[in-house]
Design a protein that fits this description.
Blueprint (H helix, E strand, L loop, with lengths): L1 E4 L2 H6 L1 H10 L9 H11 L4 E9 L2 E11 L11 E4 L13 E2 L4 H15 L2 E8 L4 H11 L3 E14 L5 H7 L2 H17 L2 E5 L3 H19 L12 H17 L2 E8 L2 E11 L2 E9 L8 H15 L4 E3 L6 H6 L2 E11 L2 H24 L2 H13 L8
Parallel strand pairs: 4-6, 11-12
Antiparallel strand pairs: 1-2, 2-3, 3-4, 3-5, 6-13, 7-12, 7-13, 8-9, 9-10, 10-11
């Protein structure tokens, strides 16, 4: 039986069942928790409509398709409504997926596919863990019903396998130049400053550290043409204010500040969920750039993850060069688009292609600063507030 949750109060009431289902399945990660997605809904859903499909067996929650619907707009070249996962957008949710009990997976996916086919709404599912997500199985079920499914690569998530590692053995696995550079920078900081690495462990220290993170991150990107979209909107700030508080209560929060002579020089914001440490964001004062405080804080974060027994350090999506210094493995992320059969599906595909082509043309023809400004407006359109 499919139960469709469209009321925020019903979404709130799902908390305990959602948590139990996630712990029973194989898709468990921070970004699929009720806490992350419910907080996202409160602060970043904008004009979307809630559309969570819950599959029940004998009254027990067996699967969830946590979706929200964006209304189409002819003026925006996306005339048709589309469904996406909760958490989509530039808040930075990775590994989004359907959630299901392993024993009910096949049956639940068939039921979800039947419901989605009847709904006849296009789906755009992003930030999927390629080769290891239930959304790919759902795609097969939809294709069997005549739907067209297209896939494309989206990004990569560099990560470090910490299983069986000590800090010393991990450092030995790094390139000798990078290892030497970290040791030298850390030693120099200890010589030139009174250094303190402080992790938030109370509500007061969380508030203080988060304010430091916002300030340092924005200061780092201040004046750059290609700025950061991590904390640039009020909705994003309020999201992190609430979720970091919830994460602290759950024991998930890993928010640390590097103090030099009692002045904040750098901050690192992450989470520990299960055995995985997720590196989410960082910031540093450009005044300390020559001391490589960003390098030092990343190393201290990985060291802390190893010391507390994490089995993995996930640097999340993005192939920035600095991540390759620390991580040797990557997970590919992908995107799937589902189109209904016949003429309606062809119209959906044509509109999606036109929308993507128009954005590419804008980037090619407009001055860089103008194109980036338009892109930012498109990303933020309809939101009260990292990449879909």
């Amino acid at each position: 039986m499919i139960e469709v949750i469209q009321n925020p109060a019903e979404f709130a009431a799902l908390k305990d069942e959602w948590t139990e289902l996630l712990s029973a399945g194989s898709s468990g990660c921070l970004f699929l928790t009720w806490e992350w997605l419910h907080t996202w809904w409160k602060h970043l859903s904008g004009g979307k409509r809630l559309r969570i499909a819950a599959v029940r067996r004998d009254g027990r929650l067996a699967a969830l398709a946590p979706l929200a619907v964006t209304k189409g707009s002819w003026s925006g070249l996306s005339p048709f409504s589309r469904a996406e996962f909760l958490g989509a957008g530039f808040v930075g949710s990775d590994y989004l997926d359907v959630i299901a009990r392993p024993e009910f997976k096949r049956e639940a996916l068939r039921e979800l596919a039947g419901w989605l086919a009847a709904e006849k709404i296009v789906l755009e599912l992003g930030q999927l863990r390629q080769g290891a997500c239930l959304a790919e199985d759902l795609a097969l079920e939809m294709a069997a019903r005549g739907w067209t499914v297209t896939g494309s690569p989206a990004n990569v998530c560099p990560y470090i396998d910490l299983g069986g590692q000590t800090w010393e053995s991990y450092l030995a696995s790094l390139g000798s130049e990078h290892r030497y550079n970290f040791h030298r920078r850390l030693k120099n900081l200890g010589k030139q400053f009174q250094m303190r690495w402080e992790q938030a462990g109370s509500e007061e220290s969380r508030r203080r550290a988060l304010a430091v993170l916002f300030e340092l991150h924005n200061k780092r990107w201040e004046g750059r043409e290609s700025g950061s979209d991590a904390f640039h909107l009020p909705g994003l700030v309020s999201f992190h204010e609430e979720f970091s508080r919830v994460a602290l209560e759950r024991g998930w929060l890993r928010l640390s500040v590097l103090w030099l002579n009692d002045k904040p020089a750098a901050a690192l914001y992450g989470f520990r969920f299960g055995g995985v440490y997720y590196f989410y964001q960082s910031g540093f004062d450009p005044e300390y750039r020559k001391y490589s405080v960003g390098l030092v804080t990343m190393g201290l974060g990985i060291q802390g993850a190893i010391q507390e027994g994490a089995t993995e350090y996930d640097l999340l999506h993005g192939d920035e060069p600095y991540k390759a210094h620390w991580a040797r493995q990557v997970r590919p992320l992908g995107r799937l688009r589902f189109y209904p059969p016949a003429a309606r599906g062809l119209l959906y595909q044509a509109a999606a292609l036109l929308d993507r082509a128009s954005r590419r043309m804008a980037r090619q023809l407009l001055p860089k600063s103008v194109a980036e400004s338009i892109s930012a407006r498109i990303r933020g359109q309809g939101k009260t507030a990292h990449v879909s």
